Structures are given as C-alpha cells and as structure tokens.
Amino acid sequence: MKNPLSFNVTNDSGSLLCPVCGFPDFASSPAYSKNGGEIGVTICPCCLWEPGFDDCPAASARAKETIIASVKAYRRSWAVTKQWGGKRDRMPENFDSADQLAKLLEIAPNLK
Ligand SMILES: [Zn+2]
Question: CA quadruple 53, 76, 17, 110: dihedral positive or negative?
C-alpha cells in the first residue's frame, strides 16, 4: 500500500474512519494527501492517532518507516485495552471499540 490517499477511509455514510481504530468522523476533512499524513487536520478522539505525526518518523520517535507499519504498531498498542483515550464527552453512548475496528477492517482490509 504505497498511496497515502488510501488511508482516507470512508463508511457508507461518508464519515472518515480513523485508520487505526475505525472511529467514524475522526476527521472532518481527509487527513491524508498524496504526500502522507497532514499535520494539524485531526487527532482521533478515540485512540489519539495523529496523522502527520504518529506516522512520520521525522516527527515521532514511535513512528515506523511507512504509514501502514505505523498504523499497525499504533493499533497493536491501542488494542491492548481498546479504551476511549480522548475527552469523555465525545465518547458515543453506544461506543463499542471491537465493533468499530471490525467495521474498519471490513471496509479497508488493506489496513489489517
Ligand atoms: Zn482512532
């Protein structure tokens, strides 16, 4: 998966899904351009993934060589607890992290 634009995943409702945890509406505009993650667009309110930072080795020491490797590594550490990491008032009442991640990987199996 070489094209950063493939990290702009949308569901049937047109909501942008976080490429790490699948949270819908994680960004109000696409967080990836052909150059990679766009810094300053969003921080996922669920897993706190920040495109352009967490997937950029020049910015974060925890980022990997590629966006997909960074996504997978970040997801592995989030998946230990699958907890809501952001502000509680943004957490949906029906929050189900396992279901949300399963939906992401169904729509975008290339992010597995
Ligand atoms: Zn997320």
Answer: positive
User: How far is the centre of ligand 1, averaged over its atoms, from the C-alpha of 48 (Å)?
Assistant: 6
What's the CA gap between 100 and 49, in Å, rounded?
15
Q: Report CA(34)–ligand 1 centroid distance (Å).
A: 21
CA of 88 to the centre of ligand 1 (A): 14
Distance 103 CA to ligand 1 centre (A): 13
- Of 32, 24, 54, 43, the closest CA to residue 85 belongs to 43
CA of 75 to the centre of ligand 1 (A): 8
* All structural domains of the chain with their residue ranges: 4-87
> pLDDT tens digits, residue range 30-84?
999 999 999 999 999 999 999 999 999 999 999 999 999 999 999 999 988 889 9
**Per-residue pLDDT at 55:** 97
Residue 97's alpha-carbon distances to 25, 26, 43, 66, in angstroms, are: 14, 14, 17, 25
